[in-house]
Each structure stands twice: as structure tokens, then as C-alpha cells.
Specification:
210 residues, alpha/beta, Rossmann fold, globular
């Protein structure tokens, strides 16, 4: 004797088998090919990030390590986590403990980190969004969600004007994380609460000549 669940699922399977399955064509007629000069793209990207309450530090590529160490020192960071493929030269000025992440590190050890430092895959100036794709210099998603502070290095050359242009930089098969400012939500009284679903503080180091 079949259960009600089996009956319902059976009817659904029968309906799907009988229903026509015309191909679905997703419209791709949105605007593409937008571009902005470097200074305008930097200004727009910075404005959007600041509006999201992120902290922004533009610098030249040769000052990456200096700026990162200054940020970590000012925020009192003593222990950081990094993905395996992060450029070690970026941490040359940091005097605290550096822990390299790997897949077997449990969440409680990630929670013991004061911060995480990663690179990024792309950015969108129009929305102030940073894209991570799990590359070796960005690491797994848990590494960038559990620690309370995320220092993310973004090369201006990877920041596009609009969303279609930024998405075109990504590999669809890679696990993509979109970051638009620190983690935040609103409680039932519409009071902003930060750090609920990810880092409470986002620091973006924008390398203007990279």
C-alpha cells in the first residue's frame, strides 16, 4: 500500500513525463561593453565600497605589504589566516602569526583567527562588488566567512564598470562568492546588525597600478 507521499510524487513524475519540454532560451540582450577610465572606475568603486561601510586603502602595487601591515597593526590583529596560494611578499611587514589554511582546518580554528587576508578574482565598480572564485590566492569560502575581519586585495585592472563585464571575467564552473561590503542584516526593528553571516569588518586594498 503506497503512502500519500508516494502517490503525490508519482503524480508529479507522470505529469512531467507527459508535459512538453520546449527549450528555454535565456535572454542575453542586456547592455555590455561598458568601460570607464581608471580614475573614474577607482572613484566609483571606492564610493560604493564606502557606502557599504567597507574600509578602502588605494595604493600602488609596491606598497601592498606596507599597507596590509599598517591595517593589521592598527586593528590589533595578532593572528591571521591565509589561503595557500597567497603571495607571501604581501605579508613581509606583518609581525604576527600567520596560519595557512587547508581543507581539514575545522570552523572553530578559523574562528580563532583575528583576520583573513586574500586576493580577489574581479570587481564591479557600479555595484561595489568583489568576486572571489576559490583560486589558490583566495581560498575556500569558509576561510572568508568565519573570521571577523577580511582584508581583501583587489587589482584595479580586474575591476569592471558593470556587472555583465565583471561576470565575463569569471569561470562559470568555479565556486563564486560575491562580497558587497561587510556582512550585515537588519533585525525585526530594522536595526542594522553586522557580522551575522560573515566578517564584521571588510578592508579593501585597491592596487591602482595592478
Amino acid at each position: 500500500m503506497s503512502s500519500a507521499r508516494d502517490t503525490v510524487l508519482g503524480r508529479i513524475r507522470d505529469a512531467l513525463a507527459l508535459a512538453p519540454t520546449p527549450p528555454v532560451v535565456a535572454p542575453r540582450d542586456y547592455r555590455t561593453g561598458r568601460a570607464l577610465p581608471d580614475d573614474e572606475r577607482l572613484a566609483l568603486f571606492t564610493d560604493r565600497l564606502l557606502d557599504y561601510k567597507a574600509r578602502v586603502h588605494p595604493c600602488t602595487a609596491d606598497r601592498t605589504a606596507e599597507v596590509i601591515s599598517e591595517v593589521l597593526r592598527e586593528l590589533g590583529v595578532r593572528r591571521i589566516g591565509v589561503p595557500a596560494g597567497l603571495d607571501a611578499r604581501w605579508l613581509a611587514g606583518y609581525e604576527g602569526e600567520v596560519r595557512q589554511d587547508h581543507a581539514d582546518v575545522p570552523p572553530d580554528r578559523l574562528d580563532a583567527l583575528d583576520a583573513v587576508v586574500t586576493a580577489s578574482a574581479a570587481g564591479c565598480a557600479e555595484t561595489g562588488t568583489i568576486f572571489l572564485d576559490g583560486s589558490p590566492d583566495q581560498g575556500r569560502r569558509a576561510l572568508t566567512l568565519v573570521p571577523d575581519l577580511h582584508v581583501c586585495v583587489v587589482d584595479l585592472s580586474t575591476v569592471e564598470a558593470g556587472v555583465p563585464e565583471a561576470v565575463a571575467r569569471l569561470t562559470p564552473e568555479r565556486p563564486t562568492t560575491l562580497i558587497s561590503g561587510p556582512s550585515a542584516t537588519s533585525d525585526i526593528e530594522l536595526e542594522r546588525v553586522e557580522g551575522v553571516h560573515g566578517p564584521r569588518t571588510l578592508v579593501v586594498v585597491i592596487r591602482t597600478d595592478a
